[in-house]
Amino acid sequence: MYLRFGRPKWPNFTSEDGSDFVIGKAQQLSEGADVSIFACGHMVWKAIEAGRILEGQGIGVELINIHTIKPLDTEAVLASIGKTKCAVTVEEHNILGGLGDSISHVAATHQPIPIEYIGTKDTFGESGKPTELLTKYGLDTPFIVEAALKVLKRKNA
Fold first, then answer.
1. Distance (Å, rounded) from C-alpha 68 to C-alpha 71?
2. I need a labelling partner for 67 at 20 to 30 A (CA). Which of 6, 43, 79, 83 fits?
3. Which of 101, 147, 143 has its CA nearest to residue 122?
4. What is the pLDDT of residues 37-50, one digit of tens each?
């Protein structure tokens, strides 16, 4: 087990008593039929922001909070990608060996789909203001929106 604590202060989108947190069970935060967005940690808030922008463009977003990557809620992943047929993974982590690879493994094994990754590109981080670093490493809201639009094009190609 490991815990990651980010420095930015985001709005709370979960219940205060923690009743919606069950180890190994994802939380579906929105339901949509066009694109699945799987996020973890404080990147969930950035995914929520991106989802609102995409919904404003008429794109149905299924947003899933994967708060425990291991054990991964494969049922939730398969149910979502079975509906949307494409996904974006969002994490403040290396794109190699994290949430994105876990989701991709489930998809490749059961239902191959186009997937776009939001995460660091196998590079060392640096110190700085959290919001500036999110932008520098391509982890902020506009990058999630861009990845969703890109994966939708791939799905419909």
1. 6
2. 83
3. 101
4. 999 988 999 999 99
